[in-house]
Amino acid sequence: MPKILILNGPNLNLLGNREPETYGRETLSAIETKSGQHGESIGLTIDFRQSNSEGELVDWIQSAIGTVDGIIINPAAYTHTSVAILDALKQVSCPIIELHLSNIFSREPFRHHSYVSPVANGVICGFGAHGYLLALDA
Ligand code: DQA
Predict the structure, then answer these.
(1) Are 74 and 12 within 8 A, CB to CB?
(2) Which of 6, 18, 54, 74 to mutate for ligand 1's pocket (most ligand atoms within 8 Å of CB)?
(3) DSSP states of 44-63 as a string?
């Protein structure tokens, strides 16, 4: 089965309690469970991870080179700051989907720029936790 790496950046471990009006009430572990179930139903193996550390995310992207069939990444705040994540993603040849729970374009201007979008095949944002399933379908 094709393997999809789902990466989640800083503070997403707090989902459920973190600004629920913006990010919804589902926990990251509930999203992981749903992603695994949905992936299985459409023939995908899911490797779901979260880190608050930029370096760890870069390490995981590097280890995905040649070993996974797709990457879904919610880089969280690193979306708007991380040249290191951009550079790591440039080394990956599989499809990359950038994902955000919230619609970053309807929020503060500093969230409108993404370092990741130039290397993403597609961007999904604003659909809350359902976005993870949409990304798997995509
Ligand atoms: C986010 C949007 C980012 O701007 C923010 O820093 C996050 C989460 C989202 O999923 O909506 O932490 O990536």
Answers:
(1) yes
(2) 74
(3) -EEEEEE-S-HHHHHHHHHH
